Amino acid sequence: MNIVDAYHETGSYRGAAAVCGVNHKTVRRVVERAAAGRFERLPAPPRTRNTDVAAKLIEERVRKTDGRISAKRLLPAARAAGYAGSARNLRRAVAAAKAAHRRRRRIYRPWVHQPGEHLVIDWGTEGGLQIFCCVLAWSRLRFVRFARDQRRTTTLRLLAECLEALGGVPAVVLADRMACLRATTVAGLVVPHPDYVRFAAHYGFRCDFCEAGDPESKGIVENLVGYAESDLVVGLGPFTDLGRANAAAERWCEEVNGRTHAETCAVPTERLMVERELLRPLPGLRPALSAGVGRTVDRLACVRFQSARYSVPAELVGRRVRVLAEQGQLAIFADGVEVARHNLVAPGEVALADEHYGGERRDPVRAPRARSAAERAFLALGPEAEAFLLAAAAAGTPRLTREVARINELAVAWGAPAVQKALSRARAFSRYRAADLASILAAGEGVPGTVCLLYTSDAADDLICVDLGGRRNIKKKKHKEKKKKRKATRAR
């Protein structure tokens, strides 16, 4: 019941309050307003806030930054403007100003797609692979493929594959401002790369680019990128092989294009049959894309590609070549002619061909280089002296310089031919001191070519041995045997 009517029926404030379920003071205020001829409540006086002193500052900064400034950045300026409240109240005021700015910032109007007009393309990244996504705007047919890079040749190759899958060419291809397709930007306008212009002219579509920093203008493909990342890569991945990833992407596209689209309430593949009649016909052949990327051959006769090294003929050192990755191999061209081809290797690995360096790899030769007169005189003895010196150095012979000088003295005394033979014998038995050579020279021609170094009792009796430390042991052994015989004779 109305409060005024209840008051007239009961005749008291409390009775009317009991009937209406309100406080008697409320009944009194309502009755007094009705007696004064006012049946509307007076508006409440505006409530003042401590952020009102910085309200204009907040609104101006939010508008200038398009709603991107934070309350933390605004706090010092608000303090300088006289704001004495807490940071929490300022955050609430900034949030309210941003919400108001978004409401009046932009008026959105639905994009009404026309059949055969727009194809929207974009790149995404997930799981170490690059995701190329296309959406035919009217039919909402989706095309997704994987690649290892976002280079221009890769983008154009996948775009050509997409057009072939659609069975026709739309009037406009709308792309983000991807660096691989643009040459430069002038006054905010994108100048497409000449390769992209030639590609578009070959297929007969017009190049178009989205506005800078405006993801809302290409939400149709941004949604596809997010959908592919969450459902394809995360749901069916991870993928380690590019071929398997693309096979999974093809099956996934068939699945999602065969389901009813939530926006159009139609199946994309069925709408494509209608839209295909309005698409431009495909050309007979694909255009010739740029044959790879340029590289300079370094002094190791190699080029670098994806952090790996690949060899080329040595005569190309310092020249520019082009490298092209195709079907798991890397082809290298010089002046339009293929000069090398390797299987792709992992980053940090090296792919070499022996014919590029004149044959198989040879062990490094570290020939002795004479620095003093004694060394020159020693090496003048011939290859035997060089081989002896290499072996002596490898064995770690102490005071080798002094030994070389003494061997030179032996060469003067005995002659070069005798010392050369002695050097060969000494090297055969790993004896690198001048005293050893002196013993060999003193033995002369009586030194046999084969010497037994492990002396046994039988060999010691039958062989003549050079004094290499074993003759002393043989004499001791024979002396012990003679003592035993003498003891045996005395015992008898």
Helix content: 40-55%
**Compute the gyration radius: what is it?**
47 Å
Going by CATH, the homologous superfamily of the largest domain would be: Ribonuclease H-like superfamily/Ribonuclease H
The helix/strand class is: alpha+beta
CATH architecture of the largest domain: 2-Layer Sandwich
Shape: elongated
CATH topology of the largest domain: Nucleotidyltransferase, domain 5
* Strand percentage: 15-25%
Molecular structure report:
The protein has helices spanning 3-10, 13-20, 24-35, 55-64, 71-80, 87-105, 152-166, 194-203, 219-236, 242-257, 268-275, 373-379, 383-394, 400-414, 416-428, 434-443, 457-462, 471-491, and strands spanning 118-126, 129-136, 141-147, 172-175, 182-186, 189-192, 206-209, 293-296, 302-305, 308-311, 320-326, 329-334, 337-343, 350-351. The chain folds into 6 domains: 3-35, no CATH class; 52-105; 118-278, Nucleotidyltransferase, domain 5; 293-357, no CATH class; 364-447, no CATH class; 448-492, no CATH class. With 492 residues, it is α+β, with helices and mostly antiparallel strands. The protein has a 5-stranded mixed beta sheet, with helices on both faces. A 4-stranded antiparallel beta sheet has the order 8-11-12-13, with no helix packed on it.
